[in-house]
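Continuing from yesterday's entry. The apo prediction looked reasonable, so today I'm repeating it with copper (II) ion included to see how the binding region is handled. Same sequence as before; SMILES copied from the compound registry.
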Amino acid sequence: MRSPFSSETEAFRFLLLLVAAVIPIVLATVFGPTWLVVVVLVLVLGAVAVRAAALHMQRLRDPAMQVKMAPPHIGSPSDRRVLVVANQTLDEDALLSELERLASNPSVRIRVLAPALISPAARMTGGIDGLLAEARAKLQTALGRIGHSRAVSGEISDADPLHAIEDEFATFVPDEVIVSTRWERTEGGLDPLLAGLVRERFAVPVRHLVFEPGADARESDRETEVRYRREAGDTAARRFGLSAVVGVAVLAALVLSTAALIRSSEHSEQRSAAEAAANQRLVEPGPVANVVALKVIPEGKRGPEGEKHDEFTTTEFTVKVGQPQLLKIDNTDTVPHSITAPGAGVNIVVMPGVHTYKLLLQRAGTYLWFCTFVCDEWAMHHPGYMSGYITAVAS
Ligand SMILES: [Cu+2]
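Holo prediction written out below.
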């Protein structure tokens, strides 16, 4: 992969930006609430994306000069090897007569490269053979006009035009290139920008023959080339800018919906915990009610193996069916525990602090209960610690 940075300084600056971006994210994660983390993340990602997009667009508009390739000269000093790149303009009189003129000089060798620009759609639908045949016919006609001789040859290529030209530099090794295009890019036609790209890449004279509608072919001047370059850069930058905006919008939608999801799940957790507590807690127990008082003590009781375990100080309850039994529980721990007996439909969430809860069973029987909060794994499975029995007797 090519580095997206044009220089080491630029890469280093981008690294600094990244480091500077990570600091607020870490701070927000450690000290802030979830929404702040999301906001900081969005701001930082946005800033990084904007910076990267700006760099990219700048490069599209104003591409850096590359190192030019200088091909060796082949043959005697008077020999000239001319590479002609054209496809749609191959039947233009101006181009053909210029090539005839060149071919009349015995020391000139001409190679015509006709890039067949085949769209992905044509490749998929298999229309490629017809297009290649058409291009071949056009090339044959052109070669026939220039004059069949050993000094003139031609080839069709369905590769990327610039790659095809690079290949020609490796095999034909031209001293000069003529690129012939229309004044603007057409379906299947060569990009007017191509001449500039060849000029940038290879240290040989490059002539650009431009065919404008209703006018004779003319050699494009420096100004025209600059205009082509700028127009193409602007188009590419615009296209990239558009896709960047779409990308940012999609990302923002994703982040926002994730944040909304986090918030709503946090809310519903809080709400269900609050509802559970409200359902079971009796704010004002009736004066005549029979109350059992007990405590939850973390590491309050030594187990048979010698370790200390979390405990409810009372784990066996006997109640009358249909009659509420109040439990005044002092949870001395900092986290909730529970008295949960699935078989009896009992689930009392015991919040930290002293609260009174209502224990009510509808059917007679003895039921195992246990704490469902992850506290002391061992104690949760051993009656007398974070587990026990509720016995309901018929009243
Ligand atoms: Cu527990």
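Comparison notes:
- The first helix runs from residue 8 to 31.
- Residues 80-220 form a domain with the Rossmann fold fold (CATH 3.40.50.620).
Will overlay with the apo model tomorrow.
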